[in-house]
Amino acid sequence: MTAYAQQPPARVLGIDPGLTRCGLGVVEGVPGRPPKLVAVGVVRTDAAADIALRLLAIEQEIERWLDEHQPDTVAVERVFSQHNVRTVMGTAQAGAVAIVCAARRGLPVALHTPSEVKAAVTGNGRADKDQVTLMVSRLLRLTEAPRPADAADALALAICHLWRVPAIQARAAGAQRARVAGGTA
Which side of the chain, N or C, has fewer Cβ within a 10 Å radius? Predict the structure, then answer.
């Protein structure tokens, strides 16, 4: 049995930010073991509504999820360059709302790029949405694929973070040791 398997399960809220559809997914588990689905859903806002009201609706739903599911960490997709500036802006705004909600509660926030998430769940950083959805369904032993793709992407983010925790912790510990050795602690 590895040291990771002896840790208590971690609960991660994955957020695939978007203004029209913001995916939310909670998984629980330990690195090296199949994760368990806790909840999955999507916050939808009307594209014709005022931006402030849309962001407020997203904030309120994320807060509700944080209250209901009590995650240990929040994993948010890092905004990635897209051709449509309006889409990038909406994604960045929704992502910022998610980060603020987590920060308000003192929860750690991790940002993962789409290619990191795809590589973590499929083994291929260039996997398409169907491949990600299929692997999320298999990893969580779901009988039906999470829909829409934003929901599957949120679960993929949570799984990615759950599985990357040992590497993230090892890097942080190594950086700390280097600072101490260099006298900058």
Answer: N
Task: Tell me whether residue 16 is annotated as binding.
Answer: yes
Considering the chain, what is the average pLDDT of its residues? Answer: 89
Give the pLDDT confidence of 82-134 residue by residue, as tens digits.
667 778 888 999 999 999 999 999 999 999 999 999 999 999 999 999 999 99
In whole angstroms, give the CA distance from residue 183 to residue 185: 6
77 is catalytic: yes
Q: Give me the domain span that covers residue 139.
A: 4-181
How many domains is the chain built from? 1
| Statement: the pTM of the whole predicted model exceeds 0.70 | yes
The arithmetic mean of pLDDT across residues 138-166, rounded, is 93
Beta partners for residue 91, in sequence order: none
Q: How many CB atoms lie within 10 A of CB 137?
A: 17
Domain with residue 150: its CATH number is 3.30.420.10
Per annotation, catalytic residue among 28, 46, 144, 150: 150
Q: Has 72 been labeled as part of a binding site?
A: no
Using alpha carbons, list the distances in angstroms from residue 22 to 6, 38, 52, 111: 33, 17, 15, 15
**Residue ranges in 29-104 assigned as alpha helix (H):** 51-69, 85-104
